[in-house]
Model the fold of this input.
Amino acid sequence: MAKISSPTRTEWCIKSLTTVFQKYAGKDACNYTLFETEFLSIMNRELAALTKNKKDPSVLDRMMKKLDTNNDGQLGFSEFLNLTGGLAMACHDSFLKAVRSQKRT
Done:
């Protein structure tokens, strides 16, 4: 019998992203998209560190509209990936700034 290996960190991250999307998608009617209430739930529950100190409550509404590239009032999985990819890039940029700052001192 072949040994099944554990998922790699990257495979685990991909599975985690799809699981989170699927957990929230479909609560408002459509099982494969996020409507605004579902998007707000993800932001407030899964990405709470990014939303808890927002002084402007409309920032999430504007974010939803910007992510909704086909303007259908909901986010498909690829639009959701634009969010998570953008956040990953911001984290990476922050890491690079910190590294550059450490090299100067």
User: Anything to note?
Assistant: The CA atoms of residues 56 and 97 lie 27 Å apart. The first helix runs from residue 9 to 24.
